[in-house]
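Possible regression after last week's pipeline update?

I re-ran a chain I had predicted before the update to compare outputs. Posting the input and the new output here so someone can diff against the archived version. Not blocking, just want to make sure nothing changed silently.
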Amino acid sequence: MYKRLSDCYYNGSRLRFLEMLGMYRGLTREQCVYGIEICQNGGYLVPCCMPVGDKDVFAIAKYLNAHQKRIPKAILKAFAAKVATLKPASSFSNFDRYFNYVADEVEKSKILVNGKCLLVYDYCLRTGYSDLVPEKYVYLFRGAREGAITVLGKVGSFRIETTVLQKALGTTMQSMEIEDFLCVCKAPLQYLASSCKVAVCPSGGCGSSASATK
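New output (post-update):
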């Protein structure tokens, strides 16, 4: 059912995703907090080296990761100051333990109401890559969560076992690839779930024409 969509993803969006992950290895601490963003011209990645002084942290707002543009400036600055005091990713044996640690510490500090959020995940992914990456679980935030709900019908947690989604999608993709696939292809997945077949990718986000029979 999902083979054509996954083929479409592999032929286009996956290359962009892997390119982005490759940049995580060279990020500074400030870049890990504020993120990287794909340029509008179609795929060149811009590192977000943003100083952390009061006057110029947000001088170049366009370099903020798109995920973080809605987060108040004061919260981002407090978050950056807090994570600078925490144990490094190298202190942990797997990504899940590292994520839980950062999430709990940030939540205890009352910087965020819910420590298990996308900002924490983005930070842990950037600082942990490539020694620590999600393996046992697929983390579901925003678009990826919408895609997972379409595929599974219901999603209760912010993460779900990778094997569950591998079975549902009929794929051997690993955790991070599944997360990206669910987000990038959420629109065609929703279209496929409500129609007999999808003739083209409705969002244009996962490539070109993709025909799949339900």
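Follow-up from reviewer: compared with the archived run. The longest strand covers residues 36-38. Marking as no regression found.
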